[in-house]
Recover the amino acids of this structure.
């Protein structure tokens, strides 16, 4: 089993637990260069808000798109856009990634700016 297969197995397990909660889901995906976050409906059929380091507004404000500063900027932005869309309570789906580093920075910034999970 390679790293990606193991990550996808963990993600599948987490998503099955989250689907029972029937909450909107804050999904995070990271690559070595960028980090992506989106809030989807409970069944996953609709995307309400999406933010990533690819977007010009975030890319211009950070020194690098692959560090903790960029991840916390994405977390802050996703929380602000979610509040504008009327979403305050979500389930955190880390997509099988460890809750460490950039994923944790994004989650902490989202919590500080009003998202509850």
């Amino acid at each position: 089993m390679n790293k990606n297969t193991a990550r996808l197995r963990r993600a599948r397990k987490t998503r099955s637990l989250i689907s029972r909660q029937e909450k909107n889901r804050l999904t995070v995906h990271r690559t070595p260069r960028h980090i992506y976050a989106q809030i989807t409906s409970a069944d996953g059929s609709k995307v309400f808000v999406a933010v990533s380091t690819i977007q010009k507004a975030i890319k211009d404000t950070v020194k690098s798109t692959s560090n903790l500063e960029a991840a916390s900027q994405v977390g802050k932005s996703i929380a602000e856009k979610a509040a504008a869309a009327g979403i305050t309570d979500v389930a955190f789906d880390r997509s099988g990634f460890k809750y460490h580093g950039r994923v944790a920075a994004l989650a902490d910034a989202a919590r500080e700016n009003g998202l509850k999970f």
About this structure: The two ends are 31 Å apart (CA to CA). The chain is about 45% helix and 20% strand. The chain has one domain: 3-112. The chain has a mean pLDDT of 95.
